[in-house]
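ARCHIVE CARD
CATEGORY: sequence design from structure
SOURCE FIELD: tokenized fold
FIELD CONTENT:
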């Protein structure tokens, strides 16, 4: 029994049934919620357990609706922030190796402590900019990103990290036709192709939640990623 309260325990149990999670995964998720609520260093304003259960846990788990996520063995979470969705995916996919890529040292420190608290031996923090993580290039089955940057920018960060046939899954809100047109141009330049944009409902009352899925269909040309900061300053397709 935890101190999270009955309703939260019930919602966690419902999520576990929805996504086929075992008791160990549930215990990991409990530890993540307790760590968020109990640590004032947490780099997120969504810390109370009930709110965090929806905004961080349920919103991360919804990616398991995609077969590409469930079968990934090597996963990189770009701009991980407080550790989401990466720590939740590490909880749900114990056979996967998950790298949480974050450039700010204080966030890296928090993610590492939260992963240790939850006992997530398959999660590792990479304290670096995505463009500068050379060791990860061409190695990932799956790259995930949530609320990081405009989509063409995320595509440029992700493409060099993916092995051919790998996938990028990006969390977004309401769809933007203009941004999606720019992303189509960027994807073509980077060796990516859009697979689908899936509307999802991670929790009751969720609105305008979409998972954008891209596949690595060709080698990313030499010169990508461009030097640090350039993807944001001069987005592809703009």
């Amino acid at each position: 029994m935890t101190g999270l309260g009955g309703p939260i325990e019930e919602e966690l149990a419902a999520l576990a049934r929805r996504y086929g999670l075992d008791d160990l995964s549930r215990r990991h998720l409990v530890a993540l919620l307790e760590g968020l609520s109990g640590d004032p260093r947490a780099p997120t304003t969504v810390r109370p357990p009930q709110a965090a259960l929806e905004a961080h846990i349920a919103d991360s788990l919804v990616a398991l609706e995609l077969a590409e996520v469930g079968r990934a063995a090597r996963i990189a979470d770009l701009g991980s922030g407080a550790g989401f969705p990466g720590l939740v995916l590490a909880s749900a996919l114990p056979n996967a190796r998950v790298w949480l890529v974050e450039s700010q040292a204080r966030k890296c420190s928090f993610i590492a402590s939260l992963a240790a608290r939850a006992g997530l031996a398959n999660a590792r923090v990479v304290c670096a900019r995505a463009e500068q993580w050379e060791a990860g290039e061409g190695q990932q089955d799956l790259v995930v990103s949530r609320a990081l940057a405009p989509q063409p920018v995320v595509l440029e960060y992700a493409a060099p990290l993916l092995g051919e046939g790998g996938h990028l899954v990006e969390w977004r809100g309401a769809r933007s036709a203009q941004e999606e047109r720019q992303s189509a141009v960027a994807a073509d330049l980077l060796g990516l192709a859009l697979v689908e944009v899936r509307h999802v409902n991670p929790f009751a009352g969720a609105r305008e939640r979409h998972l954008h899925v891209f596949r690595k269909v060709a080698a990313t040309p030499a010169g990508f990623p461009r030097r640090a900061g350039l993807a944001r300053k001069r987005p592809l397709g703009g």
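CARD ANNOTATION: The first helix runs from residue 6 to 19. Strands lie at 74-78, 97-102, 123-127, 140-146, 162-172, 192-200, 209-216.
SHELF: design records, drawer C
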